[in-house]
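Appendix B. Chain record.
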Amino acid sequence: MTALTLSTAAAPGLRADAIVIGVAKGTGSTSEDLVVAPGAEAVDKAYDGKLAGVLETLGASGAEGEVTKLPAPSGFKAPVVVAVGLGSQPEKDANGAAFDAEVLRKAAGAAARTLVGAKKAAFALPVQDASAIGAIGEGVLLGAYSFDAYKDNGKNEKAKNGKAPLAEATLLGGKPRDKEHKAAVERATAVAEELNRARDLINTPPNDLDPEAFAAVAQAAAKEHGIKVQVLDEKALEKGGYGGILGVGAGSAAGPRLVKLSYTSSKAKKHLALVGKGITYDSGGISLKPAGHNETMKCDMSGAAAVFAAVVAAARLGLEVNITGWLALAENMPSGSATRPGDVLRMYSGKTVEVLNTDAEGRLVLADALWAASQEKPDAIVDVATLTGAMMLALGSRTFGIMANDDAFRSAVHEAAEEVGEPAWPMPLPEHLRKGMDSPTADIANMGERMGGGLVAGLFLREFVGEGITWAHLDIAGPAFNEGGPFGYTPKGGTGTAVRTLVRLAELTAAGDLG
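C-alpha cells predicted for this chain:
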C-alpha cells in the first residue's frame, strides 16, 4: 500500500519524483479557458504565472481525470509536474470555492495511476478542510492499487508492467499536528486498505479462492483485529438446516461455508447486520451459463468481499456500533450431485423453494443468511450482492440499485452511497411482481417474471427478512467488476464497490443518525 503523509512544506523545495496539481475549466466569458486550482500557487508562480497557458499549449482542457505531465521549472527538487483535471471550477459562496470531495478523490486517483514506479509524489490539490484531505488520501490509495499476485517479472517479484505502484504520497496543505487532518488520513487509510483487500479477493482466481479459502482469510483478519468469527462447514450447515446454501454448493467438490463476523463496541447502542453473497465461482450450475458469460464469474463473491472489508474497516476505526457480517459462501457448479431445476429446497427459515433456474443461486444463499441475521433482531440489515443481469440492463455498469422494505431507510442508504462517491439509485419493490413467484409445489419459486428481474429478486429476498426488521438490498452486479479500462481511482477488474457505503452506514448508525 502507498504510504500517506501530511506536510505544510512548499512544493518547490520538496524532494519527490513528481508534484501533482489541479487544473480546472474557467468560468465566465472573460476568464481563461484553463485555471490553476488552489494549492498550486507556488508552482504557478515558478512558471511566472503562465502555467495555465503552458498546459493549454500541451492540450490540457481541465476535464475531470485528464492528466498532463510537463518538466518542473528550474529550482524545483521534483523533476516533473503532473496536472490533473478537476472539471468545472466551482462557484464561490460565503465559504469560498470548494471542489466536491468526489472530484478530488477521482483526480488524486487518476494521478496516482500514472505514477507507477515513483517512490514519492507530492499532491498539491485544493485543500479546504479535513474532508478534502480524506478524499485526496482515499483517491491516492485506491488509484495506486494494482493486483500483481500472479505476475512474475522473472525474479519472483510482484510488479506492474515491471514497476511497483507509487510508494509514498505527501499531501500538501495537510497539517501533521492537526487532529482532524490526522483522523482524516487514518480513516482514508483504513477504508482504502480494506477496500483494496476486497479487490484482491475479487481478483483472485477461483481455483485459489473457494469457500474454505475465503473463510480462512476472514478468520485470519478477524484474529488480527479482534473480531469474533464463526465458520459453519457442510456438517454444521446440514445440522442447522441451511438448505439454500447447501443446495447451491451441492454440485461442487469445494464445500460451502457460512461465516459470521461479529464486531462489538462497549459503547454501541445500535446493531447493524451486513449480509454478503459469496459465490466464489458461478457456472450457472445445471442451468449452465452460455459461452461468453463465465469468464468473469470469479467476481460473484463481491458482495461477501464488501461485507468482510466493511466489518474489518469498522473494527479498525473503532466505531461505536455492533456490526455482524454474514458471508454466504458457495461454488455453483454442475455435476451429478448438483441441484436440478425442479428440485425443492427447504431453507433455514423453514420455507420451501422450488428451484426453477440454478443460475438464480445468489438469492438462495442470501435467503439463509438473511434469516440467520434476522434471528439476532438487529436494528437494520443490509445485504450486498452481484445478483441480477437485469440490474445491469437497468442501471448500467457503474451504478448499483437499492431496494428496501422501508422508504426512509432506502433514501438514507442512497444518500450515504452518494456521499462517499458510489453511484446508486433507489428502486421499487412492486407488489404485483410477487405473484410470479408462486409455485404449485413449494412455498415460493426462485424465479418470477422476466421483466423487472432485479426487482423480482429483491422481492424474493424480502420473504426471508424477519418481521419488523428494517432491511435494504444492494444489487451491485454492474459496478462490482470493471471489464473496461481504468478510470479515476477505479481499476480494471474488481472494484470493491459498496465497501465505502457500508462503512458510512456504520458511521451514521454509530452516531445515531440512521434511524
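Further analysis of this model is presented in Appendix C.
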